[in-house]
Prior knowledge:
binds zinc ion, single chain, mainly beta
Amino acid sequence: MEHSVLFYCVKCNQLKTVEQAGIVFRTGYYRVHYPLGYCVHCEHHTR
Ligand SMILES: [Zn+2]
């Protein structure tokens, strides 16, 4: 079965594909289905 390929970027405040993920948190989920994280763009701008 297919696993979710989306995550929620907490900085963009939108769902993105994991291909764009920079960091994906293990601790939080958005609407249960989607892991939280930063996309590559936001990760680059995060200290
Ligand atoms: Zn982002």
